[in-house]
Design brief:
Elements (H helix, E strand, L loop, with lengths): L1 E9 L3 E3 L20 E4 L4 E8 L13 E3 L3 E3 L2 E3 L5 E10 L6 E9 L11 E5 L9 E8 L8 H4 L22
Amino acid sequence: MANYDFWALGEASVTVSGGGQLDGVTQGDGSHLVGLTITLTSSNFEEISVRDGGSDNNFDDNDGNQRLRGTQDFDGVTYGNNTTIEAEYQMVLRDPNTGIEYRAIAVNMNNSSPSYATIEGIAFVDVIPPRNVALEVISAAEGPGSRRLGRAASRRPVSHRAPRSRHPRGWPASKT
């Protein structure tokens, strides 16, 4: 059994072009978003604590062993201890201005029907994109499989606007 935490941005802090939404209208593979844009309107990332009763510590889809570790608030909603949580689908977003691509994971709290079609937020793998940029959804797929969430999701996100400077005794704590 593994315990881990990651940071995600709630659905209320994300805008999808064309009146779209993160919630799936298909089998929960994110294909309804390909060709649309996603804009992060806030940097209000929230920490999610997970208890994974399986033999892995990968945040994945269809893993009934992944449960919230304690009662938690996310995006203004309270979820009870042991609520099942999944990485419903993965997607690649591209900044049209820079060409930089970002990998995101759709976060699903399994407490509604149909369980696969509700997305409560997104987490990013390795690099977090800037706010207020319309990012193109260039691919989406079921997943993420055995890949880990990466550094960006496992530590508190920091603002892109405030560069940090190194002190002789190391890096100062980030302010958020």
